[in-house]
Amino acid sequence: MTAAGPHGSGRERVLRGAIEYFAAHGIGDVSMRGLAAALGTSHRMLNHYFGSREGLLTAVVDAVEADQRELLSTLLRDRETDSRAALRHYWRQVSDAAVTYGPLFFELSGHAMQGRAHAVSLRESLIQPWLEPLELIFQRRGSDGAQAAVQARISLAVARGLLLDLLLSGDRAGVDAAMGHLIDTELGAR
Question: Going from the N-terminus, what domains does the chain have, and what CATH number goes with each?
Answer without folding.
Answer: 1-51 (1.10.10.60), 59-187 (1.10.357.10)
